[in-house]
Design goal:
Elements: H1 4-18, H2 22-29, H3 33-41, H4 47-58, H5 73-114
Length: 115
């Protein structure tokens, strides 16, 4: 299991990579700046604090590799971007499929009414 100090350091790296300070993160997560500081130092880690920070970060970067032995922030950011692009593409594809299904249903209804 990863040491809390290592986890805290990684969370600090992510925050700095995103270009926000501890107070901005605290405001965004409805926590206090000292709580963020303690989390990043690995001094005092409450599950609620960690979950709030991870929830905020999951919207910004890919957290899949957070616990891996070789975290690469730039790779994590690009993984998040590629996943976002994949989600957008899948969403567009699903919208097109739904539209085609609606058209097929309308055609089937029209054929039924003729019978």
């Amino acid at each position: 299991m990863m040491e809390l100090k290592v986890l805290g350091e990684r969370l600090r790296m992510i925050r700095k990579h995103l270009g926000i300070n501890q107070q901005q993160l605290a405001d965004a997560t409805h926590l206090t700046q000292p709580a963020i500081s303690r989390l990043e130092k690995g001094d005092e880690v409450y599950a609620s604090t960690l979950l709030a920070v991870l929830s905020f970060y999951q919207e910004k970067i890919c957290l899949d590799n957070l616990l891996s032995s070789d975290l690469d922030i730039d790779q994590n950011t690009s993984l998040y971007s590629s996943r976002q692009e994949l989600r957008q593409r899948l969403s567009r594809d699903l919208a097109q499929i739904a539209s085609k299904l609606d058209q097929a249903k309308e055609q089937a209804d029209a054929l039924r009414s003729k019978i």
